[in-house]
Amino acid sequence: MANLEQFSRHMVVRADRLPIKAAELQREVAMTVHENLVYGTPVDTGLARSNWLMSIGKSRTDVIPQYSYGNFLGISETKNAVQAITQAITALQSHKPGQDIYDTNNVHYIETLGRGHSRQASAGWIPLAIQAGLEAVRTKRLLGP
């Protein structure tokens, strides 16, 4: 009987941790997707890369100026990427279990870039970034030991 009681207590503890662990996984997946979106975004002026905006609870609808402006910056440009990732990290600090995480880009040409309009990234790079997040889920254990 003691073993059954121990098992029961153990399961209650694990169940109590489930929302916290699920939220941790949700944030990890969101950051994986975000980083892949940011670094996969073709760059000319940095506007599209800067506008991957993470938010909690509701989707953003704004377009912000690029963090660092330039012309013909190229895919290796990192200043805007670092700032876009920093913005996401800051947004995720307020995330609580049960809240939705949104990652949006509202520049008017993001869909065109996603269809491969730029020579810097082939069509489908946005779904590939999301797929990387799904792969991250497959490699994580939700409840741990």
Multimeric state: single chain
Calculate Rg over CA atoms. Answer: 19 Å
What distance lies between the first and last C-alpha atoms, to the nearest angstrom?
23 Å
Q: Determine the strand fraction and express it as a percent band.
A: 5-15%
Shape: elongated
pLDDT averaged over residues: 88
- Low-pLDDT windows of residues: none
Per DSSP E runs of 2 or more residues, the count of β-strands stands at: 2
Can you tell me the number of structural domains?
A: 1
Give the % helix.
40-55%
| Global structural class | mainly alpha
Widest sheet, order of strands:
1-2
Order of helices and strands: HHEHEHH
How large is the count of helical segments?
5
Q: Strand count, sense and closure of the main sheet?
A: 2 strands, antiparallel
Jot down its keywords.
two-stranded antiparallel sheet, 145 residues, 52% helix, 5 helices, mainly alpha
Characterization of this structure:
The protein is mainly α and 145 residues long. The chain has one domain. It is 52% helix and 6% strand. The protein has five helices and two strands. Strands 1-2 form a two-stranded antiparallel sheet. The chain is elongated and about 70 Å long. The relative contact order is 0.21.
